[in-house]
Amino acid sequence: MTTTRTLTLADDLTVTRMGFGAMQLAGPGVFGPPRDRDGAVAVLRTAVELGLTHIDTSDFYGPHVVNELIREALHPYPSDLRIVTKVGAVRGEDGSWDPALSPEDLTDAVHANLDRLGVDVLDVVNLRIMEEADSSLAEPFGALAELQRKGLIRHLGVSTVSDAQLTEAQAIAPVVCVQNHYNLVHRADDALVDRCAREGIAYVSYFPLGGFTPVQSSVLDDVAARVGASPQQVALAWLLQRSPTMLLIPGTSSVAHLRENVAAADLELSPEVVAELDAIAG
């Protein structure tokens, strides 16, 4: 295998490069309770049993539902498990995603995550920016840095940001991860992926399989047939080989699908196959 299984971002922060995104454990539209609560708990427990040490969540998934499920399924948490959450939004009664970036909003969100996850300190908190491109994140990121100084957060990351916003955040506090939309066919962040690799920052691909619009390509299907894997597994394997600091958080509410995703970490793609897949976004 050409990719290592784990990535160390700090003395107390080592995670498996294949993680689990818990968003899909909520109800339709990431709103309300899951259709199958026992099934959702089983998925979380299976993720840990399979050796994953990186779970991505947020208290605005549900809202509150997913964090409550994580606590029910996994608390007390394994010593090597790292739960990464995000703040910067709230859910409206209609299920809308509304920005919530004031210092007061962020403080409330951090405490909500602490309370529902049942922890005294959060491993990583990502600031999710939901405003226009390249808006300043100095005030909200500074607010999180202050909560970090108070001992409520160990490490900070940013989500849905540009290269310039990453630089702005780094001037305030260390950034261990960037969580942006990136996959085999959505490649706008190529330069940022490479920058993160140079600087030893995790680039966390959300929607690695396309999210609400699944990745589709005849080339991908053909490659998958040739290597004896599913198209989804090939797309995940391509991401792991794309950058040494790439982390993946594919989500699912199915144990079978979870096992399929995790198996992609063992799939090694030849340079010829990688070049063929690279050309899809060309």
Question: What does this molecule look like?
Answer:
By secondary structure, the protein is of the alpha/beta class. The protein has a single domain, classed as TIM Barrel. 38% of the residues lie in helices and 19% in strands. It has 10 helices and 12 strands. The strands form 3 sheets. It has an 8-stranded parallel β-sheet, covered by helices on one side. Helix 1 packs across helix 2, helix 3 packs across helix 4 and helix 7 crosses helix 8. It is globular. The two termini are 26 Å apart. The mean pLDDT is 95.
Compose a concise summary of this entry:
The protein has 282 residues and is an alpha/beta fold. The chain contains 10 helices and 12 strands. Helix 1 (37-49) packs across helix 2 (65-74), helix 3 packs across helix 4 (138-149) and helix 7 crosses helix 8.
Summary tags:
single chain, 282 residues, alpha/beta, TIM Barrel, 8-stranded parallel beta sheet, two-stranded antiparallel sheet, 10 helices, 38% helix, 19% strand
